[in-house]
Amino acid sequence: MSKTIKRLIVTGLMCLSAGATALELKADAPERYLVKKGDTLWEIAERFTGNAWEWPEIWYQNDQIRNPHLIFPGDEIGLIMVDGEKKLTVMNRGDASRTVKLRPGDVKMAPTARVEPIEAAIAAIPMDAIQGFLRNHRIVTGDELEKAPYVISGYDSRVLMGAGTKVYARGDLDQDVAAAYGIFRKGQIYKDPQSGEILGLEATDIGVAKVVATENDVMTLMLEKTNQQVSIGDRLLETEDRSLMSRFIPKAPGQKIAGQILAVTNGVSHVGQFDVVALNRGTRDGMEPGHVMLIKKAGAVVYDRVEKEKVRLPSEEAGSMMVFRVFDKMSYALIMRAKRPLKVGDYFESPEI
After folding, report:
1. Does domain 137-238 have CATH number 2.70.50?
2. What is the CATH number of domain 258-349?
3. What is the Cα gyration radius of the chain?
4. CATH 2.40.10.410 residue window(s) in the chain
5. Among 292, 290, 264, which residue's Cα sits nearest to residue 278?
6. Which of 29, 110, 239, 244 could be a cystine partner for 25, CB 3.0 to 4.6 Å?
7. How far is CA 167 from CA 162, 208, 235, 237, in A?
8. Coil, helix or strand at residue 67
9. What is the mean pLDDT of each run of 10 residues along the chain (353 residues)?
């Protein structure tokens, strides 16, 4: 290898080394933090980094700790040095985790049974704000809802029914007695504001019913739970057999994703902290649960007196949100920070990494 080539390689490596900067923690980040009930992973991440999506970069999963990716109230987390870089890890488990401390950075499980359920680990974001959207609301196609079985009558020919009453439904239903169905009503149709493509139809959760009898293509169902009165024409969809996902980790996407806020779920146009919003990007665009998005406000249009023309000023960051449920063409996200007033139609994009 010639000296010239060697010099080029060395120079290139030096440039790469200079450009690769370690993740910086906040100047006022604590050396230790005791996790409290009600904390969220987002809040703890911002306590140390200022940017929740950087959590995967600073969290060290100590393999001597049971479930090192989960954090429980009463746990003490702190900073340690790993390969010359500061990382966060569990220093001490709380009473519920039954751990003993050996030396900084090393934690060992004591020989006793864990009695606290795994669900007690802190969630990434406030779960009470998104519970209904994880369990009930769905995005479906118009054709899917149109072909779904439907309520044809209530007991004694009632037209409005509540929990504890019978209803009759017709359509292509599971013939097994005791099968459960969610009852849904046609909600908002979402269209892409730029292309006009229909992204999905929101099926609004009305209740849950269980099959008690079948005869030909008509089934008798008992309403077990209702959020509002069931009406003739409401559609039946199979209940989703999936666990409630709350263990997602705030993270930045591995690719550039940008789009617009389609709607806010409280039916108004203005958006605030802990509002659930619908986005015009889904799995086909690379969106995943846990992805953090930055909300951008379009810059004002001003008049350039020199060139005598109108110019739009650069957009500015106005808030942040985390995606918690994803469909093919769209997704739901929870607003976590709102630095400025937000509204439907505002743009979002993935953080730069």
Report:
1. no
2. 2.40.10.410
3. 26
4. 258-349
5. 264
6. 29
7. 9, 11, 12, 15
8. coil
9. 43 37 75 92 92 91 81 91 89 64 44 44 87 79 91 86 91 71 92 95 91 89 92 89 66 95 81 93 96 91 92 90 95 94 93 83
